[in-house]
Amino acid sequence: MAADFHEVRFPLDVSLRGSGGPARLTEIVTLASGREHRNSRWADSRRRYDAGFGIHTLDALHAVLAFFEERRGRLYGFRYRDRVDFRSGPPSRSIAPTDQTIGGGDGHATVFALAKTYGTGLLPYRRAIAKPVAGTVRIAVAGTELPGSDFACDPATGLVTLASAPAIGAAVTAGFEFDVHVRFDTDEITVNLEAFTAGEIPKVPLVEIVP
Prior knowledge:
Strand order of the largest sheet: 1-6-16-17-5-2
Helix content: 10-25%
Order of helices and strands: EHEEEEHEEEEEEEEEEEHE
Strand content: 25-35%
Number of helices: 3
Radius of gyration: 20 Å
Shape: globular
Distance between the termini: 8 Å
Oligomer: single chain
């Protein structure tokens, strides 16, 4: 993904007013009896957004157009801040190093991938986090937070490397902020300036890139 991905974030003031969220693809077959067979076609959810809802001024529109041109439309991916889901815990709570379990010690492994788990009931969903925000990652082993000198996190992949392997059975946990890796879902942005000044919102569709 590195060659076709730019490690830059979509204009933050626009994304914080955008709309969107996760989508799934479920195939439903209704039998003659009326019963249903349901099958999930995707293993992971895929997020879609419309950043147009965040464009309220000509300056914001100009910034989005410039960003679109530099990404060459759908060609290059980029980072996007999801206002509802951008932390290892709830948006209103400060990051804690014990927010998410990312692995367990086996006495040898030192590399762990950031992840966020949704739900605690029958079928929790574990989402890989590949675009953490640099400087926000906190790590703990067996509940004790590690100093920054004892680990490194690659903000382009979400891989955490510890200075030493955790003991067997020790839980490795993390707290972090993250962006969603997306691309434009169009090669054309149409602007009707008269309609825009009257309050009409241009469509700026974005779609999550599956890692």
